[in-house]
């Protein structure tokens, strides 16, 4: 949809956080919210929120605020029709953290929209990305139209999580664990083994450096 293509990058980056709070509100049975209340919850200022929502054609009514369900269905439409690619990150350890910080900033249409972990970070927002509990994995992947996942969990957990990702509909996995995970046909795994890469480099330096430098 052309209209969505015009959503500014900064606005698009705030979408996952809006989405997170709106699903909270919906789960709690809240039907409407003012931009001031959303500002309090998200720490974005109310004017920014009003401007962001106006890009979506969602105009709050004075004295009423925004309709939570209407906003949520609007976001679902944006995700379906825009060129934004939502990626999930599983495992917010050291590496996961670094990738959240990095968040593919050079790209205007790819970003980590949701991260998942089994402990302490749950419920937090890190580098603008909401961290969900693993129990919400399947639900969020479906709701946020995510079909790519980055795996930064301990290798012992990698296969079980991969199986869950595949049954939730994930089509591509960027695997940072050393385990070669098995996936069915139709799912693509890109292995990124940093230790292995470094070891390869060390090997070349140790075995060929003398030849290439001539010493
Ligand atoms: P790394 O440097 O490899 O990112 P780390 O040393 O910080 O990792 P790990 O033990 O490798 O920590 O775990 C990475 C992250 O994965 C941790 O935040 C951990 O809580 C999380 N994790 C562990 N098991 C699971 C699981 N089954 N599902 C989701 N997250 C998990």
TrEMBL record:
Residues 80-180 form the CoA-binding domain. Homodimer. Residues 17-56 bind DNA. NCBIfam families: PRK05472.1-3 (NF003989), PRK05472.1-5 (NF003991), PRK05472.2-3 (NF003994), PRK05472.2-4 (NF003995), PRK05472.2-5 (NF003996). Its main location: cytoplasm. GO terms for cellular component: cytoplasm. Modulates transcription in response to changes in cellular NADH/NAD(+) redox state. Keywords: Cytoplasm, DNA-binding, NAD, Repressor, Transcription, Transcription regulation. InterPro entries: CoA-bd (IPR003781), NAD(P)-bd_dom_sf (IPR036291), Rex_bacilli-type (IPR058203), Rex_DNA-bd_C_dom (IPR009718), Tscrpt_rep_Rex (IPR022876), WH-like_DNA-bd_sf (IPR036388), WH_DNA-bd_sf (IPR036390). NAD(+) binds at residues 91-96. Pfam families: CoA_binding, Put_DNA-bind_N. GO terms for molecular function: DNA binding; DNA-binding transcription factor activity. It is found in: Cytoplasm. It comes from the Bacteria. This is Redox-sensing transcriptional repressor Rex.
């Amino acid at each position: 949809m052309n209209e969505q293509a015009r959503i500014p990058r900064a606005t698009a980056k705030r979408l996952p956080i809006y989405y997170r709070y709106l699903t909270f509100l919906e789960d709690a049975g809240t039907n409407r919210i003012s931009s001031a209340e959303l500002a309090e919850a998200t720490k974005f200022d109310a004017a920014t929120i009003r401007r962001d929502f106006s890009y979506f054609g969602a105009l709050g009514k004075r004295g009423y605020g925004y309709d939570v369900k209407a906003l949520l269905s609007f976001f679902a439409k944006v995700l379906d029709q825009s060129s934004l690619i939502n990626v999930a990150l599983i495992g917010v350890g050291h590496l996961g953290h670094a990738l959240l910080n990095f968040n593919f900033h050079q790209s205007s249409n790819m970003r980590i929209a949701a991260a998942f972990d089994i402990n302490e970070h749950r419920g937090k927002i890190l580098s603008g990305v909401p961290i969900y509990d693993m129990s919400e994995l399947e639900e969020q992947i479906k709701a946020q139209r995510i079909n790519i996942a980055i795996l930064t969990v301990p290798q012992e957990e990698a296969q079980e999580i991969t199986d869950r990702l595949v049954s939730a509909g994930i089509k591509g996995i960027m695997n940072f664990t050393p385990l070669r995970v098995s996936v069915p046909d139709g799912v693509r795994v890109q292995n990124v083994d940093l230790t292995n890469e470094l070891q390869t480099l060390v090997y070349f330096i140790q075995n060929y450096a003398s030849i290439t430098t001539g010493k």
